[in-house]
Each structure stands twice: as C-alpha cells, then as structure tokens.
Amino acid sequence: MTPEQITLVQASFQKVMPIAGTAADLFYDRLFETAPQTRALFPQDMAEQKKKLMVMLATAVTNLHKFDTILPAVQALGQRHKGYGVTADQYAPVGAALLWTLEKGLGPDFTPETKAAWTEAYTTLAGAMTNA
Ligand code: HEM
Fold this sequence. Notes:
By secondary structure, this protein is mostly helical. It is built from 6 helices and no strands. The protein has helices at 3-16, 20-34, 47-62, 67-83, 91-106, 112-131. The chain is globular. The two termini are 20 Å apart. The model has no long low-confidence stretch (mean pLDDT 95). The structure holds protoporphyrin IX containing FE.
C-alpha cells in the first residue's frame, strides 16, 4: 500500500467509527444475504462478534503504516479462523460485504481512490491471514 492509500483508509475509517454499530449490522446482514453458508459458522447471538470485528478492524487500520508489527497478530488471527471452520474462498464474500458496507456508510466520501485503498488493505490483511 502507498502512504496515500494508508491515509485514505485511516481517514475514511474515522468517519465510520461514529456509526460502528450500524456498520457492523449492515456488514453481517449483507454477508449472510450474499454468502448464507457463512451464517452457521457464527454464534446465534452476534452482539459480541460485532464488537470484536470493529475493534480488530480499528487496530488493523490504525497500524497499517507499521504492518510488520501487527503481522504476527494477524497471522494468529488467520490460524484461529481456520479453527472456526473458515475456508480461504470465504474471504472474498467477506471483503465484498466490507466494501459494500463502507460504500453505504460513507456515501459520496467513498471515492474510487478510497475504494481502491480499502481493497488493497483488505487484500493485504486477508492474504496474511490465509497464508498463516
Ligand atoms: C480481514 C478479515 C477478518 C478479520 C479482521 C476478522 C476478525 C475477527 C475477529 C477479531 C474475531 C474474534 C475472535 C478472534 O479474535 O479469534 C473473529 C471471529 C470469527 N470470524 Fe473473522 N475476521 C476476518 C475474516 C473472516 C472471514 C473471511 C470469515 C468467514 C466467514 C470469518 C468468520 C469468523 C468466525 C466464524 C469467527 C468466530 C465466531 C465465534 O465462534 O465466536 N472471519 N473474526
């Protein structure tokens, strides 16, 4: 990722944070609609999961400029996901649901450059998780 892309991701995430709860609702509704087979992997009650996802995303986004320092934590997260029964092909619908959520949450602020930067950020994270 370029430094400009990292700044774009961080600045746009700041705008999503105030509506984190809504964003998490939108994200999982969209995921379960577009990839229903993923629903069974998650617990019935999604409240805790929604919080964990936003905290992890915040940590990753904040530390994108020093990705090397969070790489071991991201790799460990990837290994835990294997244990949850997550397969490599499920990372694509999750990425698509994330981009869709950002588009809904950011509206006109979700510019093509911002979308490209997020695509790069998710690809980096998902790549590190699946290679772990
Ligand atoms: C960049 C990508 C992702 C991030 C940042 C992320 C983040 C997280 C976090 C923080 C947790 C909490 C548990 C833990 O820390 O181990 C978690 C759990 C989980 N994630 Fe992900 N995740 C990602 C991708 C995916 C994908 C692609 C799937 C596939 C559907 C998935 C399904 C799950 C499931 C099933 C759980 C466990 C739920 C439970 O039993 O409590 N995640 N994820």
